[in-house]
Amino acid sequence: MNQRRTRIYEGKAKILYEGPEPGTVVVHFKDDATAFNAQKKEVIDGKGVINNRISEFIFNKLNAIGIPTHFVKRLNMREQLVREVEIIPLEVVVRNVAAGTLSSRLGIEEGEPLPRTLIEFCYKNDELGDPLVAEEHIMAFGWATPQELDDMMTMAIRINDYLSGLFMGIGIKLVDFKLEFGRLYEGDMVRTVLADEISPDSCRLWDVKTDEKMDKDRFRRDLGGLVEAYQEVARRLGIMNGNEPVERSKPVLVKSD
Ligand code: UDP
Fold this sequence. Notes:
This protein is α+β, with helices and mostly antiparallel strands. 27% of the residues lie in helices and 32% in strands.
């Protein structure tokens, strides 16, 4: 026992280890923040712990409404257990309000509500800077099958509807976010499931009243206060009362004299 775990992969914000059973993986959330294809880097104390919690919360909610995901359970402050999947090499970006690269690409002012929700695909390739691609490219190069593309679009729309409402209920506008999907092999079957994480690192979240940014743009744009903003998101979601279950006092026997 107590052997060192085998590291499968180290990414920009996470490390993957072999899980305790075949077909499982342990995801470790680091404090590293990167932006602009890792040209900007910083270690932000506590970010990994908060993202682990927020992502756990969101994946549990999505599991509960029937979205298949890789998530099994959170293991500790920085780690979660997930099912091993083959990542589909696409980032699925869902947008409700213009921001970021959509605004710069098309000259639409940030904050402009979009006439309809947009779903974009980027090819996951760091050397190329994750370029935007069309369905044509995905089909031509076989990055996903037509069935997988359909699964991803259907799930992305459901996730957007659900999360937009969830965040609106706590005074937060879900401007845009990024999803990743994987292939889960079960015997002869393969299923498309939601993978990676959903956290303020992968979403744009603006306070409804003030439009204050509560996401990774605080780092990208040197606004400061990133951990405080992520903590506020967690607090509003009702998950930031420390890492222990809430202490409940035992029933007290009331005696009448
Ligand atoms: N996003 C992400 N990882 C990426 C690129 C984008 O999580 O590698 C998220 C980003 O946080 C935002 C949404 O996807 O919520 C849309 O990002 P955009 O295309 O505007 O690019 P960015 O401005 O983030 O470079």
